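Archive record:
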Amino acid sequence: MSETTRLPKPVAEAWEWQYEGACRSLPTEMFFHPDGERGPRREARIRAAKAVCATCPVVAACRAHALSVQEPYGIWGGLTEEERVEIISNARRNRRSEYVTAS
């Protein structure tokens, strides 16, 4: 018989926040840009997506997920791809400077 006590436990509860997302019933196109989208159309879509995020009861969990997995596309937790990249880059810079300072 196989040893199963060391296997990871189900992690469904780690993802259950997604059931509460304000975006759950909305079209994905609202949060993920189509190829070639630029200018005012893109800005309007981003504003609309962020407005949904602003009303979302699980925005913090969504944002934390997107930052932890470095989600490369779409609006997650009220942040664009560019905003997430900047936050992650700043966090890396801060960690490096803390490491250098502590050395």
In short: The radius of gyration is 18 Å. The helical segments are 12-15, 39-54, 59-68, 81-102. The chain has a mean pLDDT of 88.
